[in-house]
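#lab-general

N.A. 3:47 PM
ok so I finally got the sequence cleaned up, no stray characters, all 223 residues accounted for. can someone with queue access submit it? mine expired

B.Y. 3:52 PM
send it over

N.A. 3:53 PM
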Amino acid sequence: MRIGALIFILLPSTGFLAGCKSATVIDEYREASTATIDQGESIVVLGRRHSSSYETEEDFITCVGKTLGEGQSEISVIPEKTFVDSMYPYFETSTAPMDVKNLDKLARIPAIAAKFNDFNIRYFIWIDGATERTDSTGSVACAVGPGGGGCFGFAYWEDEANYEASIWDFKSLALSGKINAETKGTSFMPAIIIPIPILARVQTNACKSLANQIKLFFSAQPS
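B.Y. 4:20 PM
back already:
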């Protein structure tokens, strides 16, 4: 079952600023029903960093974890660094399990099983993706003279964030589903004496949208 949602995020402004915007598309695939996360149970949010062309940013993973831990549907989230350091070297870039079967193999190691139990993990969320600059144009030039200095010009650039979260149920050792968040946005920098960057905040919007959809994923059941 796939669930798609289009979310437009517009930043109100005037003049140059009216064009600063970003749009997010959410695509959800549910493999199995998800149980409620009981009190005392936790989830861990981890970034995939196996690609040679990009790395899932640590600050994005931190943002998703922090957002999941906020609001009425507050979820206990184990910080990525805390978890990875405690599990060394089993969740380092070159050794982390790539699928649920390999996670099962790790869970059979007594020392690792004991640490999993200490964290009381219910779900693993693996996030793969990155934010990239896709286009830019214009320029801003700055100069300093006897009467002072200033900058003049106009520039804009487009960013695209694409992230996929794979949700693993640790109790059933199965894939529960996947959520993809794709955000595109255009930022501007007009400069008349002082440069004023007007940012679309593409990565932040992708983080919030993905985290909120993960919350809905845990609270809703397939029909």
